Amino acid sequence: MKFKILFLLLIAVSITACKNNKKNTVDSTSDEIKSQKDSLIYPEEVHFKSLKQVTFGGDNAEAYWSFDDQQLVFQSNNKNWGLSCDQMFLMNADETFKDAKPPMISTGLGRTTCAYFLPDNKHIIYASTHLVDKECPEVPLRKNGKYIWPVYDSFDIFAADLKGNIVKQLTNEKGYDAEPTVSPKGDKIVFTSTRSGDLELYTMNIDGTDVKQITDELGYDGGAFFSPDGTKIIFRSSRPKTQEAIKAYKDLLAEGLVEPTEMELYICNADGSELRQLTDLGNANWSPFFHPSGKKILFSSNFEAERGFPFNLYMIDLDGKNLERVTHGETFDAFPVFSNDGKKLVFSSNRNNGGGRDTNLFIAEWQD
User: Fold this and answer.
1) Among the listed residues 270, 305, 268, the one whose alpha carbon sits nearest the alpha carbon of residue 285
2) H or E element: which one contains 11?
3) What pLDDT is stored for residue 1 in this prediction?
4) Tell me, what's the pLDDT at 137?
5) pLDDT of residue 357
6) First CA to last CA across the chain, in angstroms?
7) 237 and 206 Cβ atoms separated by less than 8 Å
8) 3-state secondary structure 102-168
9) N or C: which terminus of the chain has fewer CB atoms within 10 Å of its end residue's CB?
């Protein structure tokens, strides 16, 4: 549940207007002006050669490419698709869904999160609560005036085919098991679990065997991804340091809750060795993903914001230098994921939603 759609809703509800287009003051022909007006790309977004909107309603996020880049799997709670909470959907890479509904490939029961393709391109993994309750679990948003989010003990990780049939349960430990992603090498899964009593990262083979804990410091370690060569892992973490912060974190976790508003990025080897903090920006830095070169990280952050928003995409070197802002919206951009060939980027955004609450998927042609 990499910071989840709940945060998207919180941000979107707080916003009364969305600036969807910025004016270009350079003299242009009428056709050029119309093109600029209709463009989804802000002038400063130089890494986007083109940008296509994929979904048009509800909250859509965490879209991940198949290994051959032909399809994506994503989660949505679009009420127009008959949903009460997040379920998983399949799409071809060239499709859009303004007047259509993609095929659902989760069970339709419980709440699901964090689907990811397996290397055969015929199966996915995802986390679901359906074994405990077929209904959508309750979603607390605040506690003692602070924004919180649930880490449901009922989440386990499953493998399914592209028709929605579950073929294997990969986790069955007590507690939260979710947020799985697969190494580009196709051999390992990294995921977050509370089986140790804290929210730590673990790896396992793609068949669920050989589970190994790779983090062991207090705090919420999650949203992890492998580097393109499978040798490193990038993730975000809350690491409470003061006695007050430690107590607050432990008290919330005992209730199955976390407060994910202060997080930094961490990087380590795939076995957990050589762990180090990558960012020290403040506020929430999360949803990191490796640049195709393996030498940079793309991530979402509100560190420049005073009121909790906007969230924009940023890029940073693996040594923490050369921070660059990639998107320039006034609302919410997050969940960036490069295609395996490095040519495209899918991400979620509040742009072009008419000032409403919808968070949609966008696919950009990437240029360095």
Assistant:
1) 305
2) helix 4-13
3) 56
4) 94
5) 87
6) 29
7) no
8) CCECCCCCCCEEEEEECCCCCEEEEEECCCCCCCCCCCCCEECCEECEECCCCCEEEEEECCCCEEE
9) C
Instruction: Determine the length of the chain.
Output: 368
Distance separating alpha carbons of residues 151 and 286, to the nearest angstrom: 17
Residue 76, beta-bridge partner list? 60, 87
Tokens at 164, concatenated: 């929605």
Amino acid 70: pLDDT: 98
Sheet arrangement for strand 333-338: 48-53, 360-366, 344-349, 333-338
Long-range contacts from 202-210, C-beta under 8 angstroms, 24+ separation: 203/270, 203/271, 204/170, 206/118, 206/119, 206/125, 206/182, 207/168, 207/170, 208/157, 208/168, 208/169, 208/170, 208/171
Pair of tokens at residue 324: 């660059």
Rounded CA separation 306/109 (Å): 39
**Radius of gyration over alpha carbons of the chain, in Å?**
19
pTM: 0.90
Pick out the chain residues at pLDDT < 50: 2-37
